[in-house]
């Protein structure tokens, strides 16, 4: 994939991406190979200028045995992504007989890689992270954190390990067909919606709303809540307190 023209070093957009698509891959260096875990993130507007992340894992997760206070971690957050067909460039190639020998399919995506050092928060901070995550993802008429039996919750927390990472640096890529002709964007969005794959409509919303600025991507991500309600619920299926 290309890089420089798709980079967006914008902390506000990073926060929106994490809050909209919180399920992430956490990787650390192991003795023989990288060790990876996955978990939903909670963003905090504290720590470094880019903010901080909190998450929890089951204590039985193999990665927990290799994490110490100060361990460097790489966290990858992926937003919507989709295959883009040149047949959708209806401005550049007006009909099926057009010469498309100098183009090829590509992939559009929104993704961020974050680096920082992990530390273990206090028990109170772990419980707050779980409560905040439930509040962020349950609907207004959904399950309430106050419903859980405090003794059961305490026993489950005994089996979890919380982590916090101040974001030292991040690399955010927004590849949204900005390298294609402006008049091709409607055809790309239409092609995605007609194909109707799992993330196609979300990518179409991002392409149509993107004007080259981080703010337009933030607005498009916010619009996904209204246009893709099922995708909002699919971001995290399992009970948050289970931990992974």
Describe the secondary structure blueprint for this structure.
Layout: H1 11-20, E1 23-29, E2 34-40, E3 42-48, E4 51-58, E5 72-84, E6 106-119, H2 123-137, H3 150-157, E7 160-175, H4 185-195, H5 200-209, H6 214-227, H7 229-234
Helix pairs in contact: 1-6, 4-5, 5-6
Summarize the structure.
This protein is an alpha+beta fold and 244 residues long.
State the main characteristics.
244 residues; alpha+beta; seven-stranded antiparallel sheet; elongated
Question: Can you put this structure into words, describing what you see?
Answer:
By secondary structure, the protein is of the alpha+beta class. It has helices at residues 11-20, 123-137, 150-157, 185-195, 200-209, 214-227, 229-234, and strands at 23-29, 34-40, 42-48, 51-58, 72-84, 106-119, 160-175. It has a 7-stranded antiparallel sheet. Strand 3 (42-48) and strand 4 (51-58) form a beta hairpin. Helix 1 packs parallel to helix 6 (214-227) and helix 4 (185-195) runs antiparallel to helix 5 (200-209). Mean pLDDT is 89; it is low at 228-244.
Alpha-beta classification: alpha+beta
Order of helices and strands: HEEEEEEHHEHHHH
Enumerate how many helices there are, as a single number: 7
Q: What percent strand?
A: 25-35%
Main sheet characteristics? 7 strands, antiparallel
Oligomer: single chain
Radius of gyration: 20 Å
Distance between the termini: 31 Å
Please give the number of β-strands.
7
Order of strands across the main sheet: 2-1-5-6-7-4-3
Helix content: 25-40%
Shape: elongated
Low-pLDDT windows of residues: 228-244
If you average the pLDDT, what whole number results? 89
């Amino acid at each position: 994939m290309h890089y420089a023209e798709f980079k967006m070093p914008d902390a506000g957009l990073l926060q929106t991406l994490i809050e909209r698509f919180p399920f992430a891959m956490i990787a650390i260096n192991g003795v023989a190979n990288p060790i990876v875990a996955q978990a939903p993130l909670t963003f905090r507007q504290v720590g470094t200028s880019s903010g901080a992340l909190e998450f929890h894992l089951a204590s039985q997760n193999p990665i927990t045995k290799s994490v110490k206070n100060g361990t460097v971690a790489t966290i990858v957050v992926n937003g919507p992504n989709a295959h883009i067909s040149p047949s959708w460039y209806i401005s550049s190639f007006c009909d099926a007989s057009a010469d498309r020998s100098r183009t090829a399919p590509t992939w559009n995506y929104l993704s961020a890689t974050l680096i920082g050092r992990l530390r273990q928060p206090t028990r109170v901070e772990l419980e707050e992270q779980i409560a905040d995550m439930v509040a962020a993802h349950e609907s207004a008429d959904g399950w309430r954190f106050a419903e859980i039996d405090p003794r059961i919750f305490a026993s489950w927390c005994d089996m979890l390990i919380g982590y916090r990472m101040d974001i030292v640096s991040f690399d955010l890529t927004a590849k949204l067909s900005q390298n294609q002709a402006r008049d091709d964007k409607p055809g790309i969005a239409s092609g995605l919606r007609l194909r109707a794959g799992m993330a196609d409509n979300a990518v179409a919303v991002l392409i149509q709303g993107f004007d080259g600025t981080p703010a337009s991507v933030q607005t498009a991500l916010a619009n996904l809540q209204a246009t893709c309600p099922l995708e909002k619920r699919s971001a995290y299926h399992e009970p948050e307190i289970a931990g992974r």
